[in-house]
Amino acid sequence: AVFAGAFRLTAENMRKFYELDNKYVYRLTNLPLVSTSNPCKTNNNRFVRKDAGNDSSGCSSDSNDEFPTIVTALTSFIGDMNQSEQDVVRVLDINGISMNCNDASNDSLGASFTV
Q1: Alpha-carbon gap, residue 25 to 18, rounded angstroms
Q2: Taking Cα atoms as reference points, which of 92, 102, 114 lies closest to residue 39?
Q3: Which of 63, 67, 97, 101 is disulfide-compatible with 111, CB 3.0–4.6 A?
Q4: pLDDT-based confidence at 114, cuts 50/70/90?
Q5: Does residue 69 contact residue 101 with C-beta atoms inside 8 Å?
Q6: pLDDT tens per residue, range 9-30
Q7: Does the global pTM surpass 0.85?
Q8: What is the per-residue DSSP string for the chain?
Q9: Does the pLDDT value for residue 2 go beyond 70?
Q10: Can you give the pLDDT at residue 98?
């Protein structure tokens, strides 16, 4: 389901998507990530996989070249999952692990990576 129009981002309104259509909201297009640290500046990160069964489709590889250590961390994290998890887990919470990169311009914030 796609929603277009004015929408006040509150917990109550987000919950309505689930209550009305049993859908979770994972991403909002063009929502600025305010007060969110980029992966290079924190050891606690959440990544959302575009296609858990086939990560390599549809993602830009530009960020791979710019932030190879993030790709290495993601690949390692996914590799530690059992095969059935690898095919279905969409949200990766990587906590306590440095991405070992520098990003003064916050280019890694909201970037796409191919793994």
Answers
A1: 8
A2: 102
A3: 63
A4: confident
A5: yes
A6: 777 887 887 888 887 776 666 6
A7: no
A8: ----S-----HHHHHHHHHHHS------TT---TT---GGG-SEEEEE-S-TT-TTSS--SHHHHH-HHHHHHHHHHHHTS-HHHHHH--EEEEES-------TT-TTTT-----
A9: no
A10: 92
Quote the percentage of the chain above a pLDDT of 90: 11
Q: How far apart are CA 61 and CA 112, in angstroms?
A: 7
**CA gap 112, 58 in Å, rounded:** 9
In this structure, are residues 108 and 65 in contact, taking their beta carbons and an 8 Å threshold?
Answer: no
What sign does the CA torsion over 75, 78, 84, 89 have? Answer: negative
Per-residue exposure over 70-91, b if at least 16 CB sit within 10 Å of its own CB, e if not: bbebbeebbeeeeeeeeeeeee
